Amino acid sequence: MTATHLPDPFGALGLEPRYDVDPRALEDRFRQLSREVHPDRFAGAPASERAAALSRTRAINDAYQVLKRPQRRAEVLLAQAGVAIGDREVLKPAFLMEILELREELATARVAGDQAAVGRLAAVMRARQRALIDGLAPRFAALGGGDDAAILAAVKHDLITLRYVDRYLDECDAALDE
Amino acid sequence: MLLQISEPGASTPKAACRERVVGIDLGTTNSLVATVLDAQPTVLTGGADAIVPSVVSYDGAEAVVGRAAVARGEANPVDTVASVKRLMGRSLADVAAVAPLLPNQLIDDAGRMVKLRFSDGRERSPVQVSAAILDELRRRAEADLGGPLGGAVITVPAYFDDAQRQATRDAGRLAGLEVLRLLAEPTAAALAYGLDRGTRGTYAIYDLGGGTFDISILTLVDGVFEVRSTGGDSALGGDDLDRAIAQVVLAEAGVAADDRAAVRAVVGAARAAKEALTDAATTALAATVGGRTITRTLTRDELAAIAGPLLDRTGKACRRAWKDAGFTPEELDGVVLVGGSTRSPVVRDYVRALFGKEPLCELDPEQVVALGAAVQADVLAGGQHDVVLLDVVPLSLGLETMGGVVEKLIVRNSTIPCGATQTFTTYADNQTGFDLHVLQGERETVEACRSLARFTLRGVPPMIAGAARVEIGFQVDADGILHVAARELTSGVSAAIDVTPSYGLTDEEVERMLIESFEHAEDDLVARNLRTERVEAERILAATRAAMITDVHLLDADVAVATEAAIATLEAARAGDDYLAIRAAVEGLDRASKPFAERRMNLAIAAAMAGKSVATVEAELGR
Question: What is the SS3 assignment for B162?
Fold first, then answer.
């Protein structure tokens, strides 16, 4: 499996590609565009117009889905800068060991039905997720200062790390649902 | 559409093609139909009661619906179907928990949607039974409105999965309805509330019906209803509480829980007692079982204790929903109660404690969904309400990958319509086929998700392993129904897809049922198709003509010529009796006017992005 295609979500919403998007402005733009082109407004129109409304709305919705999440936004910007995240990216062995151990702890807690322990592990990981995401803004802000390659490499590293963190949190959620 | 941003009061095709459209709440226990009359959503009765019990009783080929079916059910339990909504899009294995309690004979259809077998040997799908209810509602509405319906919005629980939605849409088709939209029940309720109150803010809609539970968190801003998250349980409702009460009573009386007739009698008494406790703190429960009478008093406190575990399931779904929406209960502006089961003070107390605020229930919780659906139908038919509903996918959609792991393409709570594509490659040399398994659910393993369909992609040219690039596209439409497409990218060879829905009906099956349903009807299929196509032709002609006048400057000469020719062809076809010819001419007009439609859409988007009026953008474009 290869990476999902990423059409330009900034373009679909008519926004300048940048990391520090104002969430309120993003929401407003999304609602405003939806109001104009939603298929419901074309229910009585010829099929060609209905189809056009449907595909435009789909593009707007898909773009919003991506841009409202800082992490996904960062992934798009990274890809647009020509830095790809592959299927088999290598992280530091120390981090992988740590994740492996945390997974074992989670599995043990899950088998034991110890919801409190699952909750504690999730809280620790969530703090880490927060810190990684918070760290993205200053990195993007520093772009254009001459050391872009190093910055983008750091962003890429953070995003790969975040994937592991997210997957772990998904497992915590699944365990908490049981 | 640009037409709607043109001058207010200007003549638009909307006025010309206003039709009789309705909203239908197809409930587990009760159903009802409503329409917008003089800008006011109103429940239709067809000269009878507003509420039609969702019960169908069959006498051979004849179906009796509603109160008459309830009455007939006493003597003919096997041929009388209640709560059929629980069976929609479900296999026999899925409904194992409720099947023993139903008087009907349920049969397995090779693991696909369960069927019912009746005493005369006939078999029917739950889709056909639901269609009988819809048909009754359609007839009532037509009696009140004085003519055939132009279309209907049918509500479904927000948490209904793809198979359940498809089954509902198929039922509408079988009942001779043009299904304008499937609409989530809590969203419909919000629409009825929001319009009534001119509300702004973020609200939770707690919808506990007879057989389903939904929770949705919505933000209302300037006529845009944006669903932020939804959750629920499509097999949890007031019915379950009746059964839980009955189990307690049966256990105390020492009656075996597998005695179907006894269970039915006690469940009926339990429901009556539960309803009595809405107004009283204590009530008497009485049921006759095998000649002896069981009596017991039931208090509201006891009811609360019995309901506790069921209500806790709703609480869990609520907590997940507000977390998904990124809100705490304190941050919500209110919680709205919907569904007959929320009449119970036990439920109200629970919701008040869970959300920490007094729940809102000004509108009749049993009518509010149908009223909201009527408003949406009116919007779709070009009525006056300036609202847009942004609904979501309730459950993630994905594909099975190596090792039985599910790869999610569309995550839950994505706004619909939406889409995603993923590229796969071959793992063996000269592999020419792909087996694809489409799933819905949140868990990471195939077994824990719901199988929606299996596809076989054939005709991939033989290549070495890893060279082929097969792109799988998922598209969810505005009804929340998934469409899957696949193509091989390197060769450009179009590959064929065979679809086998895991639970739903194939198009052929729906077609066959449709033909069967006309064997006993006065109407006939050809006449209906002709009527439908003529209405569609009228609509398209009016809309196209109006657009050609409003936006004449966007119409290139060659497109104008082609469009005029297509209009002439359609007018000629409409005058004839061949519905297939009309359909072909409608498609012809669509093709001819496509470049025009695209330009109009581009202009609308450009204007919205710039926050300007269309006129300003046109001026800037030098037109």
Answer: helix
| Domain boundaries of chain A, sorted by first residue | 9-68, 93-177
A49: closest chain B residue by CA = B597
pLDDT tens digit sequence for B448-457:
888 888 877 7
Q: Quick one: B401 and B500 in the same domain? A: yes
Active site residue B258: no
Q: Is B185 a catalytic residue?
A: yes
What mean pLDDT do residues B31-35 have? 96
Amino acid identity, position B315: G
Domain-embedded: residue B26 = no
Statement to judge: residues B492 and B409 lie in one domain: yes
Burial of B74 (0-12, 13-18, 19+ CB in 10 A): exposed
Domain assignment of residue B452, given as a range: 397-504
Identify whether residues B407 and B491 lie together within a single domain.
Answer: yes
Pairwise CB contact (< 8 Å): A39 & B414: no
Instruction: Choose the mutation target among B313, B380, B474, B613 for the interface with A, i.e. most A CBs under 10 Å.
Output: B380
Answer whether residue B265 shows pLDDT above 70. Answer: yes
C-alpha–C-alpha distance, residues B234 and B222, integer Å? 31
Residue of B388, B399, B548, B551 to mutate, testing the A interface (most A Cβ within 10 Å of its Cβ): B388
Residues B541 and B499 in one domain: no
User: A-B interface: how many C-beta pairs under 8 angstroms?
Assistant: 142
- B187 near B372, Cβ under 8 Å? yes
Q: Which CATH architecture has domain A9-68?
A: Orthogonal Bundle (1.10)
Which residue in B has a C-alpha nearest to residue A10's C-alpha? B609
Residue B103 structure tokens: 């008087």
Does the predicted interface ipTM exceed a cut of 0.95? Answer: no
CATH architecture of the domain A93-177 equals Up-down Bundle (1.20)
Of A33, A47, A58, the CB nearest to B609: A33
Q: Where are the beta strands (DSSP E) in B234-350?
A: 282-289, 292-299, 334-338
- pLDDT tens digits, B348-399: 999 999 999 999 988 899 999 999 999 999 988 887 677 899 999 999 999 9
The total of structural domains in chain B comes to 3
Q: Which of B19, B25, B391, B479 is catalytic?
A: B25
How many Cα neighbours within 13 Å face the side chain of B410? 32
The answer to whether B504 and B113 are in contact (CB under 8 A) is yes
The partner residue sitting opposite B226, judged by closest CB among A1, A31, A39, is A31
Whether residue B531 is contained in a domain is answered as yes
* Full DSSP string of B170-233: HHHHHTT--EEEEEEHHHHHHHHHHHHHT--EEEEEEEE-SS-EEEEEEEEETTEEEEEEEEEE
CA B41, chain centre distance (Å): 20
